[in-house]
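User: Sequence in, structure out. Go.
Assistant: Echoing your sequence, followed by the structure tokens.
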Amino acid sequence: MSRGFTLLEVLVALAILGLAIVTLMQLSSQGLRLLRLSDDYQQAVLVADRVARATDILREGVVGGGEGRFLWERRVALVPVAEARLYALSVAVRWGSNRALELASLRAVVEAPEP
């Protein structure tokens, strides 16, 4: 009766170990890609929020600009409602080859009543 492993058993064990290592490396690399993508989206949200908050005076129209590797476009349109001026504000942020994010909100400007 021999002690130890046969060559076939060692080769099968090495193949299983190699497959497990390759799988773990792929999962790790996918995790890093997703982490980078989530960071990009977080930065785009910060840019969109900053551009939307910087809109003090509401005038209809489209304004564009850039911040770092992000390109943004702000659109302001008047929405007709009674007793107030309501503006639809949307900010679109684009980066990379096909990544985009859009932030939309409404802003109301209430007219002061005449005495």
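User: And one key feature?
Assistant: The mean pLDDT is 88.
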